[in-house]
Design goal:
The protein has 384 residues and is mostly beta strands. The protein contains 5 helices and 29 strands. The protein binds alpha-D-galactopyranose. Alpha-D-galactopyranose (GLA) binds next to strand 26 and strand 27.
């Protein structure tokens, strides 16, 4: 009897071991496949230009999907600490929803990201007028934003290059501007984004990607338990319309101090803080420590549940951290779930908002013959 029992338990142990030894890469690839959006959902013509969905994959690693409509990140599919995959950026499963999107999900905003006070600025004695689309101000360059344009794209292995040529005064900004965004999925599972821009006239420029992250998976609920660290000693405080006052406010002793790992929940509802009141939570620009122009770790975000993390490195001087305070469930995402209040957060490396009207802020001037060079690296992993 003992012998039979021994034999039986040995067989069981063998079966358990054998099934847990199924090659990881295979199961990873199967999971990724089931989460990928089919290319045909984006295969269409808009304004006479072809739209495409591109897929970048590291076998057994992570996958990223991009579309040339708005040079947009559509999906980022990564494993948690148990090897279970999820898509951790917000997005839609078909192109039609991107055409009507007003949340800027995953796209590149420009030529000038964030707010410009009263929709105007002066350059060389001339006043330029922009589309007013956010109270009395301009947000993300108004209706002619790069986010709503069709970029010319081509894929080369694990890299997609997208170019958009803006006409002089198209969004109200001077200069024929050529912007190129190159997304590359690296073997170490990081996604590199290089953006360059040139202009034939003196202009201002500020480009960023507006991806929303939820490290537990898009549509999985609140991001308030995620832990954030931002390498910044100050923010640019704002007025009630989220326009910078021009000052720098040290984060020390405020709910904006993320120099150590802190749960987003800790200070987000601090009603005594005027800046939190104005932002309805976090919707501010952090002044990143380190030399502008140098690639540095700006943010680390960790989800204690799935143990997924995101490290964001950038050469930009600022970072807009927006905690999804305007999200209201009016939009349904790619897996059929509604995107509710604070169900995701955006991390937007950029120059400071309203820089063209703020002489004290780093300059966003772009002159003919110069090249604007933006580098951001999103590094994905799981905590041990
Ligand atoms: C930026 C702004 C936010 C909000 C989002 C888009 O992040 O700072 O106030 O407008 O874009 O919804």
């Amino acid at each position: 009897m003992k012998k039979i029992l021994f034999l039986f338990s040995s067989v069981c142990i063998f079966i358990i071991l054998a099934t847990s030894c199924v090659p990881k890469a295979e199961t990873a690839d199967k999971q990724i496949q089931s989460l990928l959006i089919p290319a045909e959902n984006f295969d269409t013509i808009v304004d006479g230009e072809p739209i495409e969905l591109f897929t970048l994959k590291n076998p057994g690693g992570i996958a990223v999907q991009l579309t040339n409509y708005g040079a947009t990140i559509v999906s980022v599919i990564t494993p948690d600490s148990n090897g279970k995959y999820a898509d951790i950026v917000l997005g839609y499963k078909e192109i039609s929803s991107y055409l009507t999107d007003n949340m800027y999900l995953g796209c590149i905003v420009g030529p000038f990201a964030n707010r410009i006070a009263k929709g105007k600025f002066e350059l060389e004695g001339q006043e330029y007028h922009l589309d007013i689309n956010n109270g009395e101000n301009t947000l993300h360059s108004g209706k002619n934003t790069f986010a709503k344009k069709i970029w010319k794209a081509h894929q080369n292995n694990n890299s997609v290059s997208m170019t958009y040529e803006a006409k002089d005064l198209e969004a109200g900004f001077p200069g024929n501007v050529t912007a190129t965004a190159i997304y590359t999925l690296k073997p170490d599972n990081s996604l590199e984004l290089k953006i360059t821009a040139v202009s034939d006239k003196k202009t201002v420029i500020n480009l960023t990607n507006h991806a929303y992250f939820n490290l537990e998976g898009e549509g999985s609920g609140s991001i308030l338990n995620e832990i954030i660290r931002i390498n910044a000693d100050a923010i640019t405080p704002v007025d009630s319309a989220l326009i910078p006052t021009g000052e720098l406010m040290p984060v020390e002793g405020t709910p904006f101090d993320f120099r150590k790992d802190t749960a987003i929940a800790a200070g987000i509802n601090n009603a005594d803080n005027l800046q939190i009141k104005f932002g309805k939570g976090y919707d501010h620009n952090w002044v990143l420590n380190g030399n502008p122009g140098e690639l540095k770790l700006a943010v680390k975000l960790v989800d204690p549940e799935s143990k997924r993390y995101l490290e964001l490195y950038t050469n930009q001087p600022g970072l807009q951290f927006y905690s999804g305070n305007f999200m209201d469930g009016s939009v349904t995402g790619k897996s059929g779930k509604k995107y509710n209040f604070r169900n995701a957060l955006a991390l937007e490396p950029q120059f400071f908002p309203d820089s063209p009207n703020q002489p004290g802020f780093p300059s966003t001037l772009l002159e003919p013959g110069m090249s604007y060079e933006h580098l951001t690296v999103y590094s994905f992993g799981v905590e041990k």
